[in-house]
Each structure stands twice: as C-alpha cells, then as structure tokens.
Design a protein that fits this description.
Length: 245
C-alpha cells in the first residue's frame, strides 16, 4: 500500500510545497513551475534517511560553504537538475568541486537524494526551492565558482517566453554571485532559446564569452533525458559558456 507522503514531509515543509510569487505586474522571474508527483518507496525512504545529511532548508541567511561541506573546495550550483543522473556523474568525476543542486520537481529531488545518500557523495547538497530566492537570500556575492543550467524549460510559445529563466535580471544575479574566473554553463536543444542565452549573457556586465559564439561540447557533461528527447526530435544541441572577468 502507498504510504502517506504527507506524514513523511510534515517535518520538512520545503519538500511539501514551494513558495510562489503572485502572478501579475512586477512579478519577479521564477525559476520553475511547481509540479506534483507521487514517490516510489525507495524515494520516500531516501527523504526519511538522507535529507538531514544532504538536504538544506531554505532560510534568509547566507550559507557558509565551509560549514556546509566541511572543506574549502570551490562550489558549483546546478539549477534544475531534473532526475539528477548528470549531476551525480559530474560530482563523482569532478570531485575537486562541491555541488549544490536546486530542483523543485520532487521525484527528481528524491531520486538524486537516494543516489547521493546510498553512494555517500559528500560533495553534494540538495535544495528543493526556487533558485532565484536561494541565490538572492542564501548565496553570498562572489562566492560561486560556476553555474550549471542544463535544458531549462524553453517555453516555446510566444506568450510564454517571459517565463524563461535566462533573462536579464537573472543573468545579472548569476554574475553577481560568481567569483572572478567563475563560469556559467548552459545547454539547450531549443535553438531560438540558445540565441537568447547568448544575447542575454553577452549584454551582462562582467561576463565574457571565450568562444564568441556557442562553445564546443564539454566532455564531462553527461547526456540528460531532456537532451535525449531533443535529439530524438532531431533538435540541435547548443552549449553556452560565459566567464566572470
């Protein structure tokens, strides 16, 4: 019988819902669309067993990376890690970095939490909360070595494009949190969105594009399910890389 998920999450409110801004004029860009989901038994068990060790609750207080990870390795933040397969592989293969993964889709969050917990990936921490709120309230300026944003929702319809994550205000927020020499690495299978990314980041103060246009494929980025779906539709994959002066 399916266990009551509410009883699992009652002491972890940020897993039960994600605060949203009211729709309307002046509404800040959100980094997500809230989705509900049922969890499998192993995912529920992962939340129960591993959240206290690898999960971070939202609060309006800047994180101390040394305290969070227990070391002074540079920190990479991944926004929207989906099911987390690429995140786990990158964290294992590039263990010279610490990783904070942000995802509001509960199934993906719980699945990666299961992987992180069972494999004891001590350089990974997870949050289920809006990335804009986390970066604004919990991440200090000039404290992040890199951002990964792989296959964000392209919102392809004209009337939806205002909901896209990569826009001017968000790009400036990312830039303000990057340390000197830090990077922003994005990938998308939606060509028009890729062009928008290039344009937005090119007009963001403090960022430079070492490749002028799209960057060549990065060998350590794993193929995601979203990418596989794009390739199946014969979409081209475009990658964008900008660095902080």
């Amino acid at each position: 019988m399916q266990e009551n998920q509410g009883t699992i999450f009652q002491d972890i409110p940020e897993l039960e819902w994600v605060e949203t801004k009211e729709e309307g004029q002046g509404r800040p860009i959100k980094s997500y669309v809230l989705r509900g989901a049922y969890l499998r038994t192993y995912q529920l068990e992962a939340v129960r067993r591993y959240y206290s060790s690898y999960g971070i609750a939202f609060r309006k207080q800047e994180l101390d990376w040394q305290q969070v990870f227990g070391n002074d390795k540079p920190v990479i933040i991944e926004i929207g890690f989906g099911m987390g397969t690429a995140t786990a592989r990158i964290a294992k293969e590039r263990s010279q970095y610490n990783y904070l993964g942000l995802e509001v889709f509960i199934s993906g969050f719980a699945k990666l939490l299961h992987t992180v917990g069972t494999e004891q990936l001590e350089n990974v921490r997870l949050m289920r909360f809006d990335a804009v709120e986390v970066l604004t309230n919990m991440v200090a300026p000039l404290s992040v070595a890199g951002f990964h944003i792989f296959f964000p929702d392209p919102w392809p319809k004209k009337r939806q494009q205002k909901r896209r994550l990569i826009q001017g205000d968000f790009a400036r927020l990312l830039s303000s949190r990057l340390s000197s020499g830090g990077y922003i690495y994005c990938a998308t299978d939606w060509e028009e969105y890729a062009d928008q990314m290039l344009d937005v980041f090119s007009h963001t103060e403090g960022l430079v594009n070492p490749y002028e246009g799209f960057c060549p494929p990065i060998s350590w980025r794993d193929t995601t399910k979203f990418e596989q779906k794009g390739l199946a539709k014969q979409h081209s994959i475009n990658e964008v890389w900008f660095e902080k002066r």
